[in-house]
Amino acid sequence: MRVGYLGPKSSFTYKATRSFFKEAELSPLPTIVSTLKAIEMNQFDYCVIPIENSVEGTVHPALDFLYHQANVPVQAEVILPISQNLMIHPNWIGKINQLKAVKSHPQALAQTQQFLEENYSSLKQEITDSTTQAAKWISDNKDEPVMAIASKEAAKEYQLEIIQSDIQDMKTNQTRFWVIGRKKINWYKEKSPIFRQTIGVKMEQNQAGNLHKILSAFSWRGIDLTKIESRPLKTRLGDYFFLIDIKVENLILVEMALKEITELGGEIKVFGTYYAHQTINC
Ligand SMILES: O=C(O)C(=O)C[C@]1(C(=O)O)C=C[C@@H](O)C=C1
């Protein structure tokens, strides 16, 4: 089995992917969008991307591509604890006050915002396509006065020195990763206490009570929603779709709620109906 993931190797997405696919052949891809395009073009059996962090919220490039362009369903979710670490090239040991910038993925910079503000507010923040790319960059550019925020595994892989570990502002920092592919995954069921469906809903036109209509289709059936967020449709200012996570206890009831919303003028995209599992150690 071949699986693509947001790389490079030792990214958090790699960790999530390996914890899920113990035996598969894994291939790193440079960006979230290239990972999703690869599964669209059938280059892999599955691909894995981050979709939401407990501190920073939805990973927008992933959601936007899945909503607007991709048509491959979510088959499972892996939830991983995320520990962020500040690292430098060993050349800079003893010269930390000469460093000028810190590099990482925007999600990681946001997860450590308070720490950076309190300790390194003069450093320029530079973004990379993944945390591990930041680690790789400082390893490839050892004379540049730049540090990186990434995983412990990335520090090890690129022989960097961790100068402070667990720097995320919230100790319970967690990220949800989606496993996307055309083939159903059944073996995950036993491990997973959570069964959910994620949908995007767009109403035909902006009318008073639109959101209320959507929510009431779930509420009078006793269906629990665990997340709702609005996201620009990108057509013009004021046009949105709603992203909704549904706790599935009775799939038929959920399907009936979706039918009702469609009859009320809603256009629904189902991202997937999937089991989610929290990985403690991997
Ligand atoms: O997988 C990685 O290492 C990433 O850099 C991506 C990503 C994300 O987009 O959320 C993954 C987990 C962490 O929340 C921080 C960054």
From TrEMBL:
Taxonomic path: Bacteria, Bacillati, Bacillota, Bacilli, Lactobacillales
Annotated ranges, domain ACT: 199-275
PANTHER family in alphabetical order: PREPHENATE DEHYDRATASE P PROTEIN, PREPHENATE DEHYDRATASE-RELATED
InterPro entries given in the database record: ACT-like_dom_sf, ACT_dom, Chor_mutase/pphenate_deHydtase, Preph_deHydtase, Preph_deHydtase_CS
Name of the protein in its database record: Prephenate dehydratase
Catalysed transformations (reactions): prephenate + H(+) = 3-phenylpyruvate + CO2 + H2O
Species of provenance: Vagococcus carniphilus
EC numbers on record: 4.2.1.51
GO biological process, one term: L-phenylalanine biosynthetic process
Residues the record marks as site: Essential for prephenate dehydratase activity: T175
GO cellular component: cytoplasm
Gene Ontology MF annotations: prephenate dehydratase activity
Residues annotated as domain Prephenate dehydratase: 2-182
Pathway: Amino-acid biosynthesis; L-phenylalanine biosynthesis; phenylpyruvate from prephenate: step 1/1
UniProt keywords, alphabetically: Amino-acid biosynthesis, Aromatic amino acid biosynthesis, Lyase, Phenylalanine biosynthesis
